[in-house]
Amino acid sequence: MLRQDGKTKIMSYDKFIPYSLPLIEDEEIEEVIDTLRSGWITTGPKTREFEAEFAKYIGCKHAIAVNSCTAALHLALEAIGIKEGDEVITSPMTFAATAEVIRYFRAKPVFIDIDPVTMNIDAQEIERYLSTTNNRQSSLPKAIIPVHYTGYPCDMDSIRRLAEKYGLRVIEDAAHALPAYFNGRVIGSTGDITCFSFYATKNITTGEGGMVTTNNDEWAERMRIMSLHGISKDAWNRYSAEGSWYYEVIAPGYKYNLTDIAASLGVVQLKKADRLWQRRTEIAGIYNQAFRDIPELESPFNNFSNSIYRTDDFGPRTSDVGLQNSEPAPQLKGTKHSWHLYVIRLNLEGLSVSRNRFIEELKTMGIGTSVHFIPLHIHPYYRDLYDYKPGDFPVAYETYNRIISLPIYPKMTDGDVVRVVEAVLQVISRNRR
């Protein structure tokens, strides 16, 4: 319905469309009940099943289930031997966890600005930093944590080339990137170590949870042991008929194990991963078509057409958009976006409102949104510790000031998607300069 607000007609709805909702169906509920009835509710056979199926899905040798992507990142850094004083390169355009795990070791997160098109860490800027550091003959960073922002893969060819040249390990923050591909390779299958998230908003969920993947036997063994108090292999099994009461503590580990209750959700969700991704892709395609000719905003559609590491051969593009015959959002050949997030960027010079006001107006119209992310270098901890200024990473800071994450999740109906589109277009229409 429409309501009057002064001279402006504003759409008002009884139903609020939240920024995100998980899709939990009868199969997940039944699997959880089966686990509860089994009597094994902490780490056990269901967790091992989830790990095996995940490794098969990704195409990697090892998958270790943990209670968060934060835990996965922490274990990965420990496994490769990060120590106090080491430097680890990463993006400022990420969640707190990516950098905080570096600080767990009293190591230094070295932020590198983002690419203005993809919003991923800029490989050219990484190279510039590494070459400058090398020229100073100081100690080089020990690792790079590229963040596959929104689910669109980083330029992994360039990053791996730099890692090989300068002797760095690569730990991929793939919290957004399931399923995603770069140049035909599944994210999580080819790098040193890759970390995934199954938080409530993610493409598949276990409520809270994560997974770490690698093809390295030594690192996998270390991460598995350290994920459960540093006690000897298969200690989780000591209460079963096949297990033994005896165990040994070989290192001061952590309490990072995933429970079978959570894993039972993951087992079912993983079977649906491709279907859930397809629905996200459909919604992204509808958004892209609706926003493609709106000068007051930039959609991810523009990112694909201008990508600095694109191939010339694109996959299917959307045609004239209608909900009945919309085509999938465009994908670069061999590169597949997971569409965990759909982030628009406002061209504020064409609007009479700020990004924050734009969000508030959408909220009054029943549309929930978010902002991903507030760059880490302007948060008090990093700002004060390293004396950062907003302009130290100008692309990340400028991008932050005009981004909005719109709802994109499989539980959305076509009607929900239309409402989001209409609300965005109406806010633009009444605030156009």
| Sheet with the most strands: spatial strand order | 3-11-10-7-6-4-5
Order of helices and strands: EEHHEHEHEHEHEEEEEHHHEHEHHHEH
Task: Please give the count of helices.
Answer: 14
Q: Bin the strand percentage.
A: 5-15%
Classify the fold: give the CATH topology of the largest domain.
Answer: Aspartate Aminotransferase, domain 2
How does the overall form come out from the CA principal axes?
A: globular
Question: At the fourth CATH level, what is the homologous superfamily of the largest domain?
Answer: Type I PLP-dependent aspartate aminotransferase-like (Major domain)
How confident overall, as mean pLDDT? 90
Unreliable residue stretches: 6-10, 305-325
- Give the CA-CA distance, first to last residue: 26 Å
- Total number of distinct structural domains: 2
Q: Architecture of the largest domain in CATH? A: 3-Layer(aba) Sandwich
- Count of β-strands: 14
- Binned, the helix content reads 25-40%
Structural class: alpha/beta
Q: Characterize the biggest β-sheet.
A: 7 strands, mixed
Q: Class of the largest domain, according to the CATH hierarchy?
A: Alpha Beta
Using only C-alpha atoms, the radius of gyration works out to 22 Å
